[in-house]
Amino acid sequence: MSALFGSCIIGQSGGPSAVINASVYGSIKAALDSGCITKVYGAANGIRGVLEERLYILDEENAAELELLKYTPSSALGSCRYKIAPPEIDDTDYKRILEIFKKYDVRYFFYNGGNDSMDTCSKISKYMAESGYECRVMGIPKTIDNDLVETDHCPGFASAAKYIATSFMEVYLDAHVYDVGMVTIIECMGRHAGWLTAASSLASEMGQGPDLIYLAERVFDMDKFLADVGRIYRDKGKCLIAVSEGIQYADGTFVSMAESSVTDGFGHAQLGGLAAILAAIVKEKTGAKVRSVEFSLLQRCAAHVASLIDIEESFLAGKTAVIAAVNGKTDMMVGFDCDRTNGYSCATKLIKLSDVANCEKKVPDEWINADGNGILRPYIDYALPLIQGETKLSKENGLPRFARLKKIQAK
Amino acid sequence: MSALFGSCIIGQSGGPSAVINASVYGSIKAALDSGCITKVYGAANGIRGVLEERLYILDEENAAELELLKYTPSSALGSCRYKIAPPEIDDTDYKRILEIFKKYDVRYFFYNGGNDSMDTCSKISKYMAESGYECRVMGIPKTIDNDLVETDHCPGFASAAKYIATSFMEVYLDAHVYDVGMVTIIECMGRHAGWLTAASSLASEMGQGPDLIYLAERVFDMDKFLADVGRIYRDKGKCLIAVSEGIQYADGTFVSMAESSVTDGFGHAQLGGLAAILAAIVKEKTGAKVRSVEFSLLQRCAAHVASLIDIEESFLAGKTAVIAAVNGKTDMMVGFDCDRTNGYSCATKLIKLSDVANCEKKVPDEWINADGNGILRPYIDYALPLIQGETKLSKENGLPRFARLKKIQAK
Fold it and tell me: Band of the pLDDT at A260, cuts 50, 70, 90?
């Protein structure tokens, strides 16, 4: 195989994470070092930046600022939630992408995102192949939800998990200071998969975790929930609860939707967070003082408490995608194979994009307790190695010094 | 003056903070080293533990665990919100306290808390003096709200401020990734004083702060607020807003109460957080996508991002109270005198408890901009030195290793 010379475009898509920029930095660094990638472009706002010809010249960024990307949260290049149509229905976007690729001599396309992004990646890859335009397309996984299949875990998950476990420990201590009863309900992200909510169980390893954990994987039963809470509250005077935003009733309706007209004692309806809704219900049924906390955006952007393992693996995923492409691979996503039998080790592997796109991995049923209100040992053994090590984030003025890119636009 | 031999009781009161235990550790250490304090008791749940004879023998705790208190959030001894009656109205509690003090030969009482706690402290001090029972009573300040008078600042404020500034920077990056419009509203604690909300301006020093800041100190005008948001949203497509939970209309009603029947597009009323209420209003008026975040308990317990300056000063405050009492002082609170003219330096001072009790210090009007939607340089110069330095919190399993006390009860 002869070397393929040409430019590359790197793009980010979907919800940001604390470490998605570490992957981008891995890709940029490998591209600059590749010897055959002649120009490194960043797509502004993912595939939309390609369609709208908004490309940043990453070669012209300051090397030290680029390195800070490793510790900078959110998507430095900008993101999008644009879903590309199948080419057989509408090929407008694909033609435009091909036009841009030709104009900038793009022979490598790296796309960093979750399920939907791998689908975009897969479609572009196929279209380029069918068009006879040689362009190597690689997916780099990213999702705090940890729901991509075929990989042990996803970059971004561990840092969010570390934030959640740390915050649970801190709230646990806060929720136990008064000698009066108190129920505290904390809502974690996860529309369909409970990986993040389950991370609250890591706090229990340190003796400061939740009493009850409800994942989106199990059918939610309000009566049973209230009985669980009531029992623990009676026994201990306190009850700390972790709940996935995506819990559903047996008929498939989201609890947050079904109960959105629940009213508090004043006749006010509760909307917004699931935690606030459950708090109103628990308060009404038990008379207990109840507080709700929603981690909201904080759990996906808290770079100051990112996992070093996650940072390094994210960097590795971005780098591996470039090296593999330079070596002739295309139409693949980088994944992880991990071994936890004797310490923890992680190796990269390549997975066909079509095997990943639009699939969803949930927490295995046997990792959840029979009552559906707790997490079992296998999850702890799985997740604990991933949250090890502390970020090397630089500080200035006692605050994070995040990367500041020049973002020089290509003409 | 001859040395006063006897036991001491240390208590914690009011809302917890990330560093209140650092003060307690300072007091415990100084008491153990004092040479005249013969026994160190901790009151379970503040003054309630005294009244109910629930005392922990702190002499019997492991020294290494005690040291971890420096980095452990929340109130390790437990807290209370018990308001003691004036003795002229009802002296039952005072008689009981005197009884317990005599029984345990308590000659030193150290109370760690905010406004109300200094009031409790002051009343006990007076009662003991009038009863002819020699007991030295000292207050140790604590409040994330930073609203105690006569001291430059309060232990606990800086760590909460650091958490808020750090989280604002992270959310700023998160809120700017998409190329679609977005308004983000973040609610900070502060019922009457805006010190914490103003800390969001520290993030602006790093280029990643809010566009608009509304403190409880200024009258809130909904029309002006909507005009401010609309203007910035039209200009930039994004708007990041910091708001004190305690903002009020001109007639003194809390916005969160006055607008609690605001409905969203579905006719659902919004209750709970002020941020959620404002989000519903902004969404209705501007049509923009709006997200709300409430820092809630997280801002007062986030020890993992505590300020080292705050930790050391809190420790110093606790230690100084004990040393001063041993040297004959009583009826005082430890405060700080700070100099920012040539770097930052902080010295302790003693303030009469009656000068502090029940008073409230607000953000100076001249530190807020004329429009009442931003913070000026003097606040930055005041607060920035306080958030410097990182906690030395130990980690285990990639998570905080907080203090675990034995809490052996005195008989």
Answer: confident
Look at residues B246, B243, B263 and name the one whose alpha carbon lies nearest to residue B254.
Answer: B246
Residue A409 is predicted with a pLDDT of 96
Catalytic residues of B: 145
Question: Which residues in chain A have their CB less than 8 angstroms from residue B203's CB?
Answer: 399
Beta bridge partners of B292: B185
Which of B179, B298, B400 lies nearest to residue A80, judging by beta carbons?
B179
Q: Which of A188, A271, A274, A293 to mutate to test the interface with B (most CBs of B within 10 A)?
A: A271
* Residue A145: Cβ within 10 Å count: 27
Count the neighbouring beta carbons within 10 Å of the beta carbon of residue A334: 27
Query: What pLDDT score does B257 carry?
Result: 82
CB-CB neighbors (< 8 A) of B74 in chain A: 170, 173-174, 176-177
Residue B396's pLDDT is 97
Q: What are phi and psi of A107, to 5 degrees?
A: -115, -5
Structure confidence by residue, pLDDT tens digits, B277-322: 999 899 999 899 999 999 999 999 999 999 999 999 999 999 999 9
Which residue does chain A place closest to B204, by CA atoms? A399
Q: Answer yes or no: pTM beyond 0.90.
A: yes
Nearest Cα of chain A lies from the Cα of B58 at a distance, in angstroms, of: 18
Q: What is the mean pLDDT of residues A55-65?
A: 97
pLDDT band at B271 (very low <50, low <70, confident <90, very high): very low
B324-329 long-range contacts, CB within 8 A, separation 24+: B324/B138, B324/B350, B325/B108, B325/B110, B325/B136, B325/B137, B325/B138, B326/B3, B326/B4, B326/B30, B326/B34, B326/B36, B326/B37, B326/B108, B327/B1, B328/B1, B328/B4, B328/B136, B329/B136, B329/B138
Asked if A170 lies within 8 A of B73 by C-beta distance, the reply is yes
Q: How far is B205 from chain A (nearest CA, A)?
A: 8
Task: Check B398 against A404: CB less than 8 A apart.
Answer: no
Percent of chain A with pLDDT over 70: 97
Query: In chain A, whose CA is at the least distance from the CA of B185?
Result: A297
Half-sphere exposure of A51 (CA within 13 A, CB side): 14
Angstroms from A243 CA to nearest CA on chain B:
17
- 3-state secondary structure (DSSP) of residue A196: helix
B385 CB contacts (<8 Å, ≥6 apart)? Answer: B309, B338, B340, B344
The burial class, CB within 10 Å (0-12 / 13-18 / 19+), for A96 is middle
Note whether B397 contacts A388, CB cutoff 8 Å.
yes
CA distance B369 to A28: 43
Neighbours of B409 (CB within 10 A): 13
Q: How far apart are the first and last CA of chain B?
A: 32
Q: Do the Cβ atoms of B188 and B242 come closer than 8 Å?
A: yes
Contact list in A for residue B398 (CB cut-off 8 A) is 162, 307, 384, 387-389
Distance separating the N- and C-terminal Cα atoms of chain A: 32
pLDDT at B272: 52
Contact A196, A160 (CB under 8 A): yes
Q: Which of B154, B85, B159 lies closest to B115, judged by CA?
A: B154
Are B48 and A179 inside 8 Å of each other by CB? yes
Q: Which residues in B lie closer than 8 A to residue A301 (C-beta atoms)?
A: 170-171, 173-174
Residue A108: name the closest of A42, A195, A45 by CA: A42
Closest Cα in chain A to B274? A272
- Per DSSP, chain B holds a count of helices (H) and strands (E) of 15, 13
Top residue of A20, A164, A172, A399 to mutate, by most chain B CBs within 10 Å, is A399
For residue B149, what are its two tokens?
A: 């008078």
The amino acid occupying position B256 is: S
Residues B315, B67 contacting (CB under 8 angstroms)? no
CA distance A388 to chain B (A): 4
